[in-house]
């Protein structure tokens, strides 16, 4: 299978690296100094499960890709539409596109640009980052990909992908309800990201502050209300699950959106708390904590995007 990993950051770099290490034909899309480092020294992956280096094919020119069978998207959620437009010309009849980024509506974004037959839905569970050019650092969570057909049907193509992922040696699951699973992940990441970005402290510090802890609960409950209004069966038990995850993560953990905002980079703010705020307005559901978080962080986001 001809596999393309679009975005060689913490997500694409780790899972793509494992696929390349297992001997699959993998081409990475990377940019700038990261691209040059991978070309010159290979892609290095540091992980709780061992270090390794691969020397894969890597390019910044999407037009060089020929006949991709599977394209794994490891970019940020705000980049999905643009990436969909870039890959559209290289898709063949049976190309599969699997989005793994955080956010609740990435498959829908892809389906708005690409023929829907190409698009799976998916998510990943991993805490990782680009440590330096050409180096990926996985430092929390047992990495896993959860994926499925948009309609949850158990097709041969998703079974084939599972076989490939199994051979690559990372956990993976064909979901029975991929949209619910995506929202469960979204519930976690949107709850911690905005609060982390506003407080600018690690999870261990904000989870021990009772007032901030209540803000986390309220943030999560607003997300559940939006999900329910959209027909997604999140429950209060899922809020408790999220709080349990927060409590059990390493004290010094931070979220990727939090790190981006603290480093004055463009972030997924619009796709997390901004999305909940907008959905609240559309669905006439009150989302005061998410809206407060979004609007407090928005000026920094605009500065990072040179819009202010």
Q: What can you tell me about this protein's structure?
A:
The protein is of the alpha/beta class and 308 residues long. It contains twelve helices and ten strands. It has helices at residues 10-21, 32-41, 80-87, 106-113, 156-168, 178-199, 203-207, 210-229, 236-248, 256-262, 273-283, 288-304, and strands at residues 2-6, 25-29, 43-46, 52-54, 57-59, 70-73, 96-99, 120-132, 135-149, 171-174. The chain is globular, with a radius of gyration of 19 Å. It is an enzyme of class 1 (oxidoreductase). Pfam families: ApbA, ApbA_C.
CATH architecture of the largest domain: 3-Layer(aba) Sandwich
Give unreliable regions as ranges: none
Give helix and strand order, one letter per element, not per position. EHEHEEEEHEHEEHEHHHHHHH
Give me the CATH fold name of the largest domain: Rossmann fold
The main sheet comes to: 5 strands, parallel
How are the strands ordered across the major sheet? 5-2-1-6-7
What's the CATH superfamily of the largest domain, by name?
NAD(P)-binding Rossmann-like Domain
Radius of gyration: 19 Å
Report the span from N to C terminus.
Answer: 45 Å
| Percent strand | 15-25%
Query: What is the β-strand count?
Result: 10
Percent helix, as a range, is: 40-55%
Q: Could you tell me the mean pLDDT? A: 96
Structurally, how many domains make up the residues? 2
Counting DSSP H or I runs of 4 or more residues, the number of helices is 12
Anisotropy-based shape: globular
Structural class: alpha/beta
- Give the class-level CATH name of the largest domain: Alpha Beta
GO molecular function: 2-dehydropantoate 2-reductase activity
InterPro entries: 6-PGluconate_DH-like_C_sf, 6PGD_dom2, ApbA, KPA_reductase, KPR-Related, KPR_N, NAD(P)-bd_dom_sf
Function: Catalyzes the NADPH-dependent reduction of ketopantoate into pantoic acid.
Catalytic activity: (R)-pantoate + NADP(+) = 2-dehydropantoate + NADPH + H(+)
């Amino acid at each position: 299978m001809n596999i393309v990993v679009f975005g060689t950051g913490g997500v694409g770099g780790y899972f793509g690296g494992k696929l390349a290490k297992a001997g699959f034909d993998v081409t990475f899309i990377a940019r700038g100094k990261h691209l040059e480092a991978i070309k010159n020294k290979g892609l290095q992956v540091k992980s709780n499960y061992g270090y390794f280096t691969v020397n894969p094919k890597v390019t910044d020119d999407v037009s060089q890709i020929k006949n991709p069978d599977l394209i794994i998207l490891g970019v940020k959620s705000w980049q999905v539409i643009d990436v969909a437009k870039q890959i559209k010309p290289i898709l063949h009849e049976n190309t599969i596109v699997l989005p793994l980024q955080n956010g609740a509506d990435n498959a829908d974004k892809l389906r708005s640009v690409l023929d829907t037959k190409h698009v799976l839905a998916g998510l990943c569970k991993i805490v990782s980052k680009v440590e330096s050019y050409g180096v990926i650092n996985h430092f929390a969570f047992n990495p896993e990909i959860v994926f499925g057909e948009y309609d949850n049907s158990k097709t041969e193509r998703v079974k084939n992908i599972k076989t490939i992922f199994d051979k690559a040696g990372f956990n993976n699951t064909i979901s029975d309800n991929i949209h619910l699973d995506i929202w469960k992940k979204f519930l976690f990441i949107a709850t911690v990201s905005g609060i982390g970005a506003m407080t600018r402290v690690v999870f261990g510090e904000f989870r021990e502050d009772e007032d901030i802890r209540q803000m986390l609960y309220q943030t999560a409950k607003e997300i559940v209300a939006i999900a329910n209004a959209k027909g997604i069966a999140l429950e209060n038990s899922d809020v408790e699950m999220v709080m349990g995850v927060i409590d059990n993560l390493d004290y010094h953990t931070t979220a990727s959106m939090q790190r981006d905002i603290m480093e004055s980079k463009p972030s997924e703010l619009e796709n997390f708390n901004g999305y909940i705020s907008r959905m609240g307005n559309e669905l006439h559901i009150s989302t005061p904590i998410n809206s407060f978080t979004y609007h407090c962080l928005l000026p920094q986001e605009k500065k990072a995007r040179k819009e202010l």
